[in-house]
Write a structure and sequence with these properties.
Shape: globular
Distance between the termini: 43 Å
Helix content: 25-40%
Number of strands: 9
Radius of gyration: 19 Å
Structural class: alpha/beta
Length: 256
């Protein structure tokens, strides 16, 4: 297989060649259960009761605009070959994807920041790599809303769901509840959080609002994505991730 350019990486799914080995899940039906959160700082954070679904066409347009801008600005950069760090990488657990550790707060894998001319940094987005096969759409769907009215209804419903002691009130289920608690922990320093397990990803944008029209002060937006089936909007994981980082970057640049 010839080396892939940066431009080409945005035109197709992530590689599934022999050089990328995915550790099979240890549970049936392709589902790897996350352990229950019993200790640590993550337990101090509650997931959103519900979330408003991001619009995929808007994300697709953001990605297209960012690629075209880069092509006009520096076409040679997009024609560069993608870097190859390792010939083979077995993605078996979260530690295999770790890029950075911040002992002062919480560990994350990749952090995008914007640095101004004075050296001040602003966090743009965080990507957290999880064990393979832990992100599943069915765990997120019960909490998904497409309108403000539906969001308020799901928030109210979250408080009627019977759960165990000290378990948060949310319409999220199974792994999604645990993943969202960790995402909320990162939201204290960065509103845009990506959860990624190589086969699927979930995007969170956290907004703290004080508006009586919203039933919760966590007016989160979210979007589940997988490359397991073709899409009419040509979105893939690389384009979606680019769009997710480009949106807060544009907001930050306008504020400078």
């Amino acid at each position: 297989m010839p080396p892939q350019t940066i431009s080409e990486s945005f035109n197709g799914p992530l590689p599934k060649s022999p050089s990328i080995k995915l550790d099979p899940p240890r549970n049936k039906e392709g589902y790897r259960y996350l352990p229950k959160i019993t200790t640590g700082s993550t337990r101090e954070h509650d997931p959103p009761e519900a979330y408003i679904k991001m619009k995929p066409m808007g994300l697709a347009q953001l990605a297209n605009d960012a690629i075209e801008h880069a092509r006009r600005k520096n076409p040679r950069a997009l024609s560069a070959v993608m870097p190859t760090l390792e010939r083979t990488h077995l993605l078996k657990n979260e530690a295999d994807g770790s890029e950075r550790v911040d002992a002062r707060t919480s560990r994350f894998d990749i952090l995008w920041t914007l640095c101004d001319e004075h050296g001040a940094e602003e966090n743009i987005a965080v990507l957290e790599m999880k064990s393979t096969h832990v992100i599943h759409e069915k765990d997120f769907l019960p909490a998904e809303a497409t309108t403000q009215a539906e969001f308020n209804s799901k928030v109210a419903h979250a408080y009627t769901i019977e759960r165990g002691d000290n378990e948060p009130s949310t319409c999220l289920e199974e792994n999604a509840t645990k993943l969202a608690r960790q995402a909320d922990k990162y939201a204290a320093r960065c509103r845009h959080v990506v959860l990624f397990d190589w086969t699927a990803m979930f995007l969170f944008e956290f907004r703290r609002v004080h508006n009586p029209l919203y039933a919760s002060d966590k007016a989160a937006r979210g979007f589940f994505f997988t490359e397991s089936s073709p899409r009419p909007d040509y979105l893939n994981i690389c384009r979606l991730l680019l769009a997710f980082v480009a949106e807060p970057l544009k907001e930050a640049l306008r504020a400078i």
